[in-house]
Amino acid sequence: MVKTKIVTDSSATMKPSLREQYNIHVVPLSVMIDGTVYSDDENLTGEHFMEMMAASKNLPKTSQPPIGEFVNLYDKLGADGSEILSIHMSETLSGTVDAAKQASNITKSKVTVVDTETTDQSLAFAVLRAAQLAQEEKTTEEILPEIKQMLKNTKLYIGVSTLENLVKGGRISRAKGLLSSILSIRVIMEFKNGDLFPIVKGRGTKTFNKWFERLKNELKNNSTVKKIGISYAGGKEQCEKYKNELQELFPQLEIYLLHTTPIIATHTGNGAFAIMYYADQT
Q: Of 38-42, 67-71, 89-93, 161-165, where does mean pLDDT reach its minimum?
């Protein structure tokens, strides 16, 4: 039987131990800070990156992996006849998935590339499930329908304390109606179909807390919730509170509270967080 091997990019926020357990191959993006380029891998932790970003003269710049890096990995993984399922962050956020697609046309291996239209732990949900199915010796054709359905039923909400990084990084524009004259306004956005949609904005932490109470009410009435993840950039005290309250609602779930990757933190800025969940019905 032909084996399926799983590839993703470094925006998929997950515990390193899970990558090892499920044999997930990660292609790192890179981030440039004041002229120095760093690989977004385990050697550049989220916490260390936040310190570096705070001390930098300019906003760091992120870059997708070179096409050749994908080609080399695909060639290596497919040398034994294995198929490759390469699952990546949204094309609207990065050219990574496009680089993967170009590489899939160059490599001798059979590669299927998926644009998940999401990122962070939402991407990790799909990657981990694909890897679990691959270990059960499922084929790419068998894995894809489940992953696509999972992504369809995954929600990703992002809270930012400042819009400055998103604007400077070109991820949102002033035309979106998000901005007033003050960039430090707090905003909750839903990342849906590869785009950011503002759902709440205000001043002070009460903006986040009021929204979170509404989210809790929404989730506690949904008996089909299967996964919840919380990511943060910078301080995690507020997110620890969110995790504890969600854990009370869903004691059967393992809710991961993780620092997001440098790639994501570059664009969200300090004090940002994300809450993601997957349910059979949303």
A: 161-165
Global pTM reads 0.91
**Which amino acid does the sequence have at 34?**
D
Give the separation between CA 57 and CA 162, rounded to whole angstroms: 18
